[in-house]
Design a protein that fits this description.
Strand order of the largest sheet: 3-2-1-7-20
Radius of gyration: 24 Å
Helix content: 25-40%
Largest sheet: 5 strands, parallel
Bound molecules: flavin-adenine dinucleotide, nicotinamide-adenine-dinucleotide
CATH superfamily of the largest domain: FAD/NAD(P)-binding domain
Strand content: 25-35%
Low-confidence stretches: none
CATH topology of the largest domain: FAD/NAD(P)-binding domain
CATH class of the largest domain: Alpha Beta
CATH architecture of the largest domain: 3-Layer(bba) Sandwich
Number of helices: 14
Number of strands: 25
């Protein structure tokens, strides 16, 4: 029997990982990418954002060093050098993916794919279209920024999305950010550190509405203390261009106010990018552009799978990659099921914020009997050394079995520590299991064990009656 012919549409962290896994398992894989390998994540998402955040950390460190009696005089910021460094990191990683494609003998086509039938694709390359049949297809077409229907926003040169914000030619003096979600908060953090006056306008009552509310509120207060202005429960009514500025009209509690700004960053979420795929031709079911799958990630059409942002659910690179491996394994005759419980959410602000499992809001809504433990980072030596002890770890345990239901960390290195918590949830660990593990001292991670102990009512380094 010949090799199974697998096509992957899209070369982002979903698609390229799926292609590698299918090739590892013996598939003859073709990956079709219309733009650049690495997708949103490597080119205009995770990596460039984190490169800019890393650059901004140097300024934060220089400022905080004074607290230790070290005067670091930052002479200037060479913004084009910051952009150049960011671009070089991106190029290296994209080059790495290209190398992996070659090493795994994956045929990469630089073109646009659309369905010609259930297992047939039209592939357009420089105006020429060819039709090709495959045994299985994985759709990993990703997402694009959502554009809200705000009068004056569309085609306004003052209004940009995250892609525009990652490659601004100059550091703006004033920026209004519509949306206090992950992109809004991370990019506000970057530009604020570089000196931009920031105003965030969020429609809901809190920023980062999908994260643990109590910790999000602590982060909000910290950002406000640093000088970032945040309006919640607020709606942008209109945007007007006025010379080199934009006038953003915002409504809060029935009152309207005008904000003059240089740049408007629109960060109100992303939507599945599926219009060009001609899903109907293959009879693939979708809802408002989001492809529907079962928990094996198969669509309603046998042998056609969909993964990552184009499902329109959790839009994270590691989710897309995890789903890519699962879809490839199912296609290649193994059985794998996507399990969301261990998927962490991370926000790479200067004080990092990460969570996995249930938030307290979700536990309450689901009427789950839980007990919560909180450990303030002030009581953790390493955090005190690093940033004065800001932040908190919150752990939720099931009341009956004391299993770990959720962990939420606002602390230095939160995004690295969340892996242990995801493992605990995946292995259905109880408080006792985590407490039995000796955590090194002095580390931020020992606060995690203490937070579990706090939820179990016997933390050592805090006193609670
Ligand atoms: P994508 O990465 O979007 O890749 C889809 C690919 O498919 C694209 O390259 C596209 O060109 C291609 N394509 C689409 N249609 C076709 C077609 N018809 N034919 C051929 N090719 C096609 N996530 C994190 O986990 N951590 C982060 O820190 C993080 N930071 C982010 C920062 C920003 C500013 C943004 C915008 C996103 C960030 N994300 C982050 C989200 C992350 O980038 C996405 O979740 C991830 O890239 C999704 O992977 P994907 O493979 O599903 O889609
Ligand atoms: P998001 O869903 O995280 O946040 C969008 C925010 O905009 C929400 O708080 C929402 O209430 C608000 N909003 C919606 N319409 C609004 C309006 N008209 N006016 C004011 N506020 C409005 O989306 P995002 O920040 O655009 O990010 C898109 C995706 O990219 C997310 O799904 C996220 O997972 C991913 N991402 C992840 C990371 C990371 O993992 N660190 C970083 C950036 C982006």
């Amino acid at each position: 029997m010949g090799k199974k012919k697998v096509a992957v549409i899209g070369g982002g962290p979903g698609g390229y990982v799926a292609a590698i896994r299918a090739a590892q398992l013996g598939g003859e894989v073709t990956l079709i990418e219309k733009n650049k390998l690495g997708g949103t994540c490597l080119n205009v998402g995770c990596i460039p954002t984190k490169a800019l955040l890393h650059a901004s950390e140097f300024l934060n460190c220089a400022r905080e060093a004074a607290d230790y009696g070290i005067q670091l005089d930052v002479k200037s910021v060479n913004w084009s050098a910051v952009q150049k460094k960011k671009a070089s990191v991106v190029a290296k990683l994209v080059g790495g993916v290209t190398g992996l494609m070659k090493a795994n003998k994956i045929r990469v086509i630089n073109g646009t794919a659309s369905f010609a039938g259930p297992k047939k694709l039209n592939i357009e390359q420089q105006g020429k279209v060819s039709e090709e049949a495959f045994d299985s297809i994985i759709i990993a077409a990703g997402s694009v920024p959502a554009i809200p229907p705000i009068p004056g926003l569309k085609d306004n040169p003052r209004c940009i999305d995250s892609t525009g914000a990652l490659s601004l030619e100059n550091i703006p003096k004033k920026m209004t950010v519509i949306g206090g979600g992950v992109i809004g908060v991370e990019l506000a953090s970057v530009y604020h550190t570089f000196g931009t006056e920031i105003q965030i306008v969020e429609a809901l009552p809190a920023i980062l509405p999908n994260m643990d509310g109590e910790l999000a509120q602590i982060l909000r207060k910290r950002m406000e203390k640093q000088g970032i202005k945040i309006m919640t429960d607020s709606r942008v009514v209109s945007i007007e261009e006025k010379g080199s500025m934009a006038i953003v009209e915002v409504e809060k509690d029935g009152k309207k106010q005008k904000i003059e700004t240089e740049i408007v960053l629109v960060a109100v979420g992303r939507r599945a990018s599926t219009e060009s795929l001609n899903l109907d031709k293959a009879g693939i079911r979708s809802e408002k552009g989001k492809i529907l799958t079962d928990d094996h990630l198969m669509t309603n059409v046998p042998d056609v799978y969909a993964i990552g942002d184009c499902l329109g659910k959790v839009m994270l690179a590691h989710t897309a990659s995890a789903q890519g491996e699962i879809a490839a394994e199912n296609i290649m005759g193994h059985e794998a099921v996507y399990d969301e419980r261990t998927c962490p959410s991370c926000i790479y602000t200067e004080l990092e914020f990460a969570g996995v499992g249930l938030t307290e809001e979700q536990a309450k809504a689901a009427k789950i009997d839980y007990q919560a433990g909180r450990f303030p980072m002030m009581a953790n030596g390493k955090s005190l050394i690093m940033n004065g002890g800001e932040g908190m770890i919150k752990v939720l345990l099931g009341k009956e079995y004391k299993e770990i239901l959720g962990v939420h960390i606002l602390a230095p290195r939160a995004t690295d520590m969340i892996g242990e918590c995801a493992l605990a949830i995946g292995m259905e660990a109880t408080a006792e299991d985590v407490e039995a593990v000796i955590h090194a001292h002095p580390t931020v991670s020992e606060a995690l064990r203490e937070a579990v102990m706090a939820a179990d009512k016997h933390a050592i380094h805090i006193f609670e009656k």
